[in-house]
Design goal:
This protein is an alpha/beta fold. The chain folds into two domains: 278 residues, FAD/NAD(P)-binding domain; 103 residues, Succinate dehydrogenase/fumarate reductase flavoprotein, catalytic domain (Flavocytochrome C3, Chain A, domain 1, Alpha-Beta Complex). The chain has 14 helices and 16 strands. Strands 1, 2, 5, 6, 7, 8 and 15 form a seven-stranded mixed sheet that branches. A four-stranded antiparallel sheet has the order 10-13-12-11, with helices on one face. Pathway: Cofactor biosynthesis; NAD(+) biosynthesis; iminoaspartate from L-aspartate (oxidase route): step 1/1.
């Protein structure tokens, strides 16, 4: 792999990374997009179902819904900024540039959009394409960038570490086909997605190993709100991780309801908005009812399920799920509400380092994210960061290559260590936490990090660096959770269990 220079280096190829690349390229900057993906479905954006929220005639209602879903913790300046830019960004990028075929009420392009409603939204404002909006957005986006003369996309390529000198980031060390080389950049933008690999059950792809958060933190960038890990309440409760798939909140927006093993509809007992309560409330209620009665199902019998949601019906059929009898569901890790701390243009605390999308903490989500705002946040902040990142001169700095002289890793090393990490996070840093469990989690994760670090000093294997990143990120999440003694949104604290003195 050869050394490279570029005006803007973008790490990640979901909606946030693609938006950044497009905006930077529009200024005339040369852009290099680095992605571990070898296919679009390797990105979390591909799996986004519900859609993308847009600002209607009453922007203040949208602002109020975001803040309410966050349990009152969202940064209102960031929320106002998102809502203000939402419509223009969607029209410019998704409609006029990419021609995303959003569903319309009559089925023709000239008809009004068929806006959906999801949990914690007070009105219909969700643009969607069936229940698989992400893939209909990301495919055209990647094709558009592939044809852009100013954009180079490097697939199956991982950023191992940031190149830093005196508080400024100058690019990253890249790995492809076991070869490592620096890519020097005027500005670097992290758009690496979430942290699903830190948990056994997640709606994220396997490659969501917290790379951006870990690389930024190791380089000295500030992180914030990492304790707020959102669990989606309605993921299919398959036996294996690979069986897990999301059942969009749009189902409940159209009338689907949650029932326990006794057939009871239980959400009215937990929240005034019942099945359309904020995600954190619904997820904990589902877990409680599953523990109390045995199982929880999503009842879609009152919907025209196969006709209205053909993509989800097909997923059920692939797994042999008799959806007419109720779909077995359980909470699964879904979204990191915090991340690398950024301003309204995606700037981090390190000069010329930006972060966008799920790996960034913009302040929009606070302690809990409102449904269908993740694609929107990635789009809006991606456009802003791309424009802000352009225009910096590329400077070469010393970029010593890591030592890769030792033998290959022991068989199963990374797989075994990742499973250990997931057990710790599931048990102690999951849907509910307590102080004693968080102490045990931090101790266990510190030991694991020490074991992993001993190998990363002399090896550059990709799966090892992914494990390092997942371990660093998990430790940061556990540390933030331990330091925050206030139970809000996704960060739900319970009293530590009593220990028998005998």
């Amino acid at each position: 792999m050869r050394e490279r220079e570029t005006d803007v280096l973008v790490v990640g190829s979901g909606v946030a990374g693609c938006s950044t690349a497009l905006a930077a390229a529009r200024t005339g900057a040369s852009v290099t997009v680095v992605t571990k993906a070898t296919a679009p479905e390797d990105s979390s954006t591909w799996w986004a179902q519900g859609g993308i929220a847009v600002t209607g005639d009453d922007p203040e209602t949208f602002v109020a819904d975001i803040v309410a879903a966050s349990d009152g913790t969202a940064d209102e300046a960031a929320v106002e900024s998102l809502v203000t830019d939402a419509r223009d960004a969607v029209e410019d990028v998704l409609v006029e540039t990419l021609d995303v075929p959003f569903d319309t009420e009559g089925g023709d392009a000239s008809d009004d959009y068929d806006l959906a409603r999801e949990a914690a939204h007070s009105e219909r404002r969700i643009l969607h394409v069936d229940a698989s909006t992400g893939r209909h957005l990301l495919g055209p986006f990647l094709a558009h960038l592939a044809g852009h003369e100013s954009v180079t996309v490097l697939e199956d390529t991982m950023a191992l570490d940031l190149l830093t000198a005196e508080g400024r980031v100058h690019g990253a060390l890249l790995e492809r086909d076991d070869e490592v080389a620096p890519c020097f950049a005027g500005a670097t933008v992290l758009a690496t997605g979430g942290v699903g690999a830190c948990y056994e059950r997640s709606t994220n792809p396997e490659a969501a190993t917290g790379d951006g958060v870990a690389m930024a933190a190791l380089a000295g960038a500030e992180t914030r709100d990492l304790e707020y890990v959102q669990f989606h309440p309605t993921a299919y409760a398959g036996e294996e991780r690979e069986d897990t798939f999301l059942l969009s909140e749009a189902l409940r927006g159209e009338g689907a309801v949650l029932r326990n093993a006794e057939g009871e509809r239980f959400m009215p007992d937990y929240h005034a908005d019942a099945d359309l309560a904020p995600r954190d409330v619904v997820a904990r209620a589902v877990a409680t009812e599953a523990e109390r009665t045995g199982t929880v199902t999503l009842d879609v019998s009152e919907l025209g399920f196969a006709e209205e949601f053909p993509d989800l019906a097909a997923l059920c059929e692939e797994r042999g799920v008799e959806w007419a009898d109720g779909i077995p569901i359980a909470p699964a890790e879904h979204f990191l509400c915090g991340g690398v701390d950024v301003d309204l243009h995606g700037r981090t605390s390190l000069d010329r380092l930006f972060a966008v999308g799920e790996c960034a903490r913009t302040g929009v989500h606070g302690a809990n994210r409102l449904a269908s705002t993740s694609l929107l946040e990635g789009l809006v902040w991606g456009v802003r960061a791309g424009e802000a990142a352009a225009g910096h001169d590329t400077e070469r700095v010393d970029a010593p290559l890591p030592d890769d002289s030792d033998p290959a890793l022991p068989p199963g090393f990374c797989v075994d260590k990742r499973r250990r990490l997931q057990r710790v996070m599931d048990e102690h840093v999951g849907l509910e936490r307590d102080a004693a469990g968080l102490r045990r989690a931090r101790a266990g994760l510190r030991r694991l990090k020490g074991e992993v670090d001993a190998y990363t000093r002399t090896r550059t294997a990709r799966d090892l660096y992914e494990l390092r990143n997942a371990t660093v990120t998990a430790l940061l999440v556990a540390r933030a959770a331990a330091e925050n003694t206030e139970s809000r949104g996704c960060h739900f604290l319970t009293p530590a269990p009593e220990v028998d003195a005998d």
